[in-house]
Amino acid sequence: MDNSIFLLIFSLLLLQSPISASNLHKLKQLRSDFHSQEQTFPSSSSNAIPPTKFFEVTKPIKLPKGKPCSYNVLTHDFAFTYGKPPVFANYTPPSNCPYQSFSKIVLEWKAASKGRQFDRIFGVWVGGVEILRSCTAEPRATGIVWTVKKDITRYQSLLLSNQTLAVSLRNVVDGTYTGIYHVHINVHFYPHESKVETLASGSEIPADLILPISKNIPSDNGFWFEIQNSTDKGLKEFKIPQNAYKAVLEVYVSFHENDEFWYTNPPDSYLNANNLTDTPGHGAFREVVVTLDKKNVVGSIWPFTVIYTGGVNPLLWRPITGIGSFDLPSYDIDVTPFLGTILDGKVHSLGFKVTNALNVWYIDANLHLWLDRKSSRTEGKLVNHIAKPLVESVVSDFNGLNGTFSISAKRSILSNGWVRSSFGNISTSFVQDLTYSSSMVIEKNGDKQTVNQIISFNDSVHSKLPSHVHNFISETQRTFSLNLDSDTLDKGNGTYLAVANITLGFDENKSKNAASGFSKSSLKNVQDGQGTMVVKNNLVISGVGATQQEYKYKSKGFCYFRKVSASNYTILYDKVRKLCNKRLNNGSHSGSASLFFL
Ligand SMILES: *[C@@H]1O[C@H](CO)[C@@H](O)[C@H](O)[C@H]1NC(C)=O
Ligand SMILES: *[C@@H]1O[C@H](CO)[C@@H](O)[C@H](O)[C@H]1NC(C)=O
Ligand SMILES: *[C@@H]1O[C@H](CO)[C@@H](O)[C@H](O)[C@H]1NC(C)=O
Ligand SMILES: *[C@@H]1O[C@H](CO)[C@@H](O)[C@H](O)[C@H]1NC(C)=O
Ligand SMILES: *[C@@H]1O[C@H](CO)[C@@H](O)[C@H](O)[C@H]1NC(C)=O
Ligand SMILES: *[C@@H]1O[C@H](CO)[C@@H](O)[C@H](O)[C@H]1NC(C)=O
Ligand SMILES: *[C@@H]1O[C@H](CO)[C@@H](O)[C@H](O)[C@H]1NC(C)=O
Ligand SMILES: *[C@@H]1O[C@H](CO)[C@@H](O)[C@H](O)[C@H]1NC(C)=O
Ligand SMILES: *[C@@H]1O[C@H](CO)[C@@H](O)[C@H](O)[C@H]1NC(C)=O
Ligand SMILES: *[C@@H]1O[C@H](CO)[C@@H](O)[C@H](O)[C@H]1NC(C)=O
Ligand SMILES: *[C@@H]1O[C@H](CO)[C@@H](O)[C@H](O)[C@H]1NC(C)=O
């Protein structure tokens, strides 16, 4: 039992927390301690070793022509920040820019660290509106650097006025955990190419107003609500202008501590039968439910299984980090059908709950609102709202610590309503269909665990415009897949060999049919990782991780393919192709050589 997976992943690691275990959020990561090995370099040559560059594979941001106006919003060293307020900076829009209208705004997070440190979750807010949620990379003795670039154009309405920028990154620095995070945040404003005033019915036009659905006053842990259990609730009161004609709630979620690996949690019946009191349970299904005025379920989120840079085996994520770990996905819920309910000029509330939750989930949201410039009042009505209760089934078959578990869940939510503005009387329906299935096998008295999980998550927005031939239709299909096999072998003397293989997939198809035309994109992003590590006294004393990733993004006129592989910190191959033309994909084609960057 001593060396069971549960103890390895879940509780042994509690001990390494430098403060008290219950205070820290990153409890379950191992830290690799190759310090002694790396310190065999004389210090002078050690300084000469260039830092390792960590990265998340993602498509580059499509930038307009022209030089951006760039400026540095924050430069800060995050040393011992635990228990201290977030770091604040004055944000001002660019004033000495030759143009004042922007088509793209890009946030650039650049960081460096050296030494030994956990992965830390962090958030960046502008006026209480979260614009980036991310996780730090775990440093090495020889140092690391990484950069995250994010298209923040959708937050434009905020970014054009003076604001307060806040960053919460709770770090602990002491004799053991030496890594300080040296951070630069830059914002780049790209000029407008052409300007067209159109109805923002789902087109890419940023909202006119964004309301923070986050804590009014941040704790040292930022503006997010901290959901501790399935009855706990994050609740925010808000009021909207009475001339809104479209509303989208963007939700950010991340899971930590006892729920960091929620998808591996066994059911409580198994834990109870085996007297496992310290192992996180509540099964392997989680759902974030969003409610309006404490009653209407406006949407549901079945989140992607982001694995942070210290998760499962930290060596898997060096230097290719896990999908979504440097830029956690946010999830959009179209709440336009509910505008009729909230256009009354009164205070309403949005609430967040997490089904089966264990501590702790960080959740907050941004309410994007599009306003009717030609009238001070719009009106609307919710016509239909069907949110059937969640259907969850768990089939358990176990004998002692060995067992198999099948979990499935299903949910669909539909809302339909009309809003009359100067654009006319527009009926909008928003539909979410979600399915979940997981099979978990536990063998070797708990030492070996296999998890195969698939989340399928579709949503659609249909808008009927009165006088337009084209209705607006937007559909998104997502499949999140996770296969995780882990095994531990007792090596005696408090030492274990841990082996883990993982496949993590994020697939997304989007289509949009609007008056402006039809557009479509697809993304297939999959990572395979194989890791081994020898763990002693909660320290990774040796090991190796290898990761292969294939990223394929296609849309009309913009494609991006990347195949990259790394093992033991070294890139084995890295092929990038940016052209959509399939013919050029033929490796033997004479023109292909210049398209690959090895
Ligand atoms: C925004 O901040 C700048 C710099 O502090 C200041 O000069 C300017 O007057 C402010 N603008 C507004 C509208 O408050
Ligand atoms: C759930 O969490 C809240 C907030 O921490 C706490 O007040 C409440 O007692 C908890 N409920 C249960 C059943 O543990
Ligand atoms: C669990 O604890 C109870 C009461 O202490 C004991 O009777 C039972 O045998 C234990 N079961 C296992 C599997 O250890
Ligand atoms: C808007 O259209 C719906 C049907 O699509 C109708 O029921 C409603 O009365 C209309 N509202 C106004 C103000 O015309
Ligand atoms: C999502 O849409 C696809 C294509 O229409 C369908 O095959 C799949 O079953 C849908 N998934 C859910 C959860 O409804
Ligand atoms: C659990 O499975 C292992 C092999 O994986 C076996 O050696 C052990 O006896 C099994 N335990 C029980 C209680 O069946
Ligand atoms: C996306 O579309 C492709 C091609 O139609 C299909 O094979 C794939 O399963 C779809 N992915 C999702 C997430 O629905
Ligand atoms: C991981 O993959 C390797 C190579 O494919 C295999 O030998 C090993 O048994 C796998 N380990 C686990 C725990 O699945
Ligand atoms: C076990 O660890 C102790 C103390 O670290 C050491 O003295 C002993 O030699 C180790 N035994 C084995 C078999 O490695
Ligand atoms: C990993 O790389 C280090 C340094 O280059 C080397 O010493 C070590 O032997 C490698 N490990 C494996 C398993 O290849
Ligand atoms: C790739 O190019 C070679 C040489 O031009 C040709 O023989 C082959 O059929 C092509 N393969 C594909 C899949 O197009």
UniProtKB/TrEMBL annotation:
Protein name (database record): Peptide N-acetyl-beta-D-glucosaminyl asparaginase amidase A N-terminal domain-containing protein
Signal is among the record's keywords: yes
Residue ranges constituting the Peptide N-acetyl-beta-D-glucosaminyl asparaginase amidase A N-terminal domain according to the UniProt record: 67-384
Pfam families cross-referenced by the UniProt entry: PNGase_A_C (PF25156), PNGaseA (PF12222)
InterPro entries, A to Z: PNGase_A (IPR021102), PNGaseA_N (IPR056948)
Keywords: Signal
Domain of life: Eukaryota
N-terminal signal peptide: 1-21
